[in-house]
Amino acid sequence: MDSSQLPLDLGHRPALGREDFLIAPCNELAVAWIDRWPDWPGHTLGFYGPSGCGKTHLAQVWRADSAAVLVTAEGLAEMDADVLLAGQRNCVVDDIVPALTKSSELQRRLFHLYNYVREEKGYLLFTGQEAPARWAVDLPDLASRLAAVPAFALGLPDDFLFEALLVKLFYDRQLTISKEVLRFLVLRLDRSFEAARQIVSTLDQASLASQREITIPFIRGVLEKETRA
User: Fold this and answer.
1) What mean pLDDT, rounded, does the chain reach?
2) Pairing between strand 69-71 and 12-15?
3) Are 9 and 148 spatial neighbours (Cβ–Cβ below 8 Å)?
4) Beta bridge mates, 124
5) Which intervals hold domain Hda lid (predicted)?
6) Which of 53, 46, 16, 75 is nearest to 146 (CA)?
7) Residue 125: how many CB atoms within 10 A of its CB?
């Protein structure tokens, strides 16, 4: 193997049918709590952090383990808890805060969902940019329930995790990149999972279309075209 190419030798966690979830200090506590399920205090848990930190991805890992139903603001607004869960006892309430804070009816429905899952001895996982205890809700009973949810922060990837993520995303597409290309990207991209996925997808498509290798000059050209677009 060319010494200028990076081998894929990363500690990673299979995400049960999804992309591997890479573990690093910014998310290892949240991963540990996923591993502890069903030993969750109060049958509830919250993950929070900035957009792109991987909280929704990690929630999907738990869904695969628990057969949890994904609850969105739209679904919660349209269906009662028993219909929404369709016989399941576990659910992920994923990033509904923007809609929740604007709707007293949605707050009432979330309160009933919470109680329904607890009565069924199921489990709830909340995700959002802030811990559930900090969600701006007006319904006192819901606010008290959310205040009691143990919540754990996920941070944006550090350099090590971000480099590992880029290598893995390229590897998934059967592409290899040089160390120089990797450092070039790391120094120029936002530190988020979404930014990594987007640039790898863009470069893969551009490389296929032009039949060119992914080099630093090639990346500069792609980025310049995106800036002009």
Assistant:
1) 88
2) unpaired
3) no
4) 44, 91
5) 172-223
6) 46
7) 26
Residue 218 is predicted with a pLDDT of 96
What is the rounded distance in angstroms from the CA atom of residue 47 to the CA atom of residue 95?
10
Write down all domains in the chain, each with its CATH number in brackets: 27-153 (3.40.50.300), 157-228 (1.10.8.60)
Residues paired with 70 in a beta bridge: 92
Residue corresponding to tokens 């990363």: 10
Residue 162: both structure tokens together: 């971000």
How confident is the model at residue 8, as a pLDDT? 37
Q: What's the pLDDT at 179?
A: 93
pTM of the model: 0.76
pLDDT of residue 229: 65
Tokens 């190419």 found at? 5
CB of 75 within 8 A of CB of 52? Answer: no
